[in-house]
Uracil phosphoribosyltransferase (Flavobacterium artemisiae), 76 residues
Amino acid sequence: MTSFFEGIQYLFVNILFAPLDFLRRLELITWFGANTINWIFMIICSCAIVYWIKQLRIFDDAGTENQDTTAHSFLK
């Protein structure tokens, strides 16, 4: 049973956390390089928010959005 838990430890410490260890070492060299993943996620989220707002504006201008407070049965 001990070898099973040691196998789980090996999986997580040596394999699954290897990218995080790489980022930790990279941060000592360059901060921007270590935070590239964060910048990519922020750009993706910003693009998604802009797209969402454009779609909301399209439906609002077309008048197809139901803004009545009784749009859902639980609000009656």
About this structure: The radius of gyration is 24 Å. The CA atoms of residues 16 and 47 lie 30 Å apart. The longest helix spans residues 36-62.
